[in-house]
Amino acid sequence: MLRNIPANMQGYKLMVTEPPQPKMRENDNGMQEIATDRNGVQQFVVSLFAKRKAQPGEFAGKGEEIRVTLTADPGEGFEEGAYVHLIDATVSHWENNGRSGLSFKANGLTPAGADLSAAA
């Protein structure tokens, strides 16, 4: 199975739709608990709307909401509507109980700055 493939998201505008929060998972008892990696480090999750950056004369097309697992707390300042860049983004394919999809992961977020805020 392909895992942790580097993902170049430079051709996309990424806007926060749900601010970063601790990632939760259901334990064996059906209770929600904070998700950690294999080393016990707390994980976070952020929802982003990803839309391709259109070149002059091109149609950008539709975007899509993605959920990205963050390997560390990104800190403050990533509220709904903020444009961001992912740090060291990767994508992995998953399959479970007849379902499959892609999961995104990154080491963190940085503000995209005025370059995207004005263009939105």
Describe how the helices and strands are arranged.
Elements lengths: L4 E2 L5 E11 L1 E3 L5 E3 L9 E9 L11 E7 L12 E5 L2 E7 L2 E8 L1 E4 L2 H4 L3
Parallel strand pairs: 6-9
Antiparallel strand pairs: 1-8, 2-5, 2-7, 3-4, 5-6, 7-10, 8-9
Structure description:
With 120 residues, the protein is mainly beta. The protein has one domain (5-113): Beta Barrel (OB fold (Dihydrolipoamide Acetyltransferase, E2P)). It contains one helix and ten strands; from the N terminus they run ββββββββββα. The protein has one helix at 114-117; strands at 5-6, 12-22, 24-26, 32-34, 44-52, 64-70, 83-87, 90-96, 99-106, 108-111. The strands form two sheets. An eight-stranded mixed beta sheet has the order 1-8-9-6-5-2-7-10, with no helix packed on it. A two-stranded antiparallel ribbon has the order 3-4. A hairpin with a 2-residue loop joins β8 and β9 (99-106). The longest helix is centred in the C-terminal third of the chain and has 4 residues, at 114-117. It is globular, with a radius of gyration of 16 Å. It starts with a strand and ends with a helix. Mean pLDDT is 89; it is low at 116-120.
The oligomeric status of these chains comes to: single chain
**CATH architecture type:** Beta Barrel
What class do helices, strands and sheet pairing give?
A: mainly beta
Radius of gyration: 16 Å
Mean of residue pLDDT values:
89
For the sheet with most strands, the description reads: 8 strands, mixed
Strand content: over 45%
The top-level CATH class is: Mainly Beta
Order of helical and strand elements: EEEEEEEEEEH
User: Remind me, CATH topology?
Assistant: OB fold (Dihydrolipoamide Acetyltransferase, E2P)
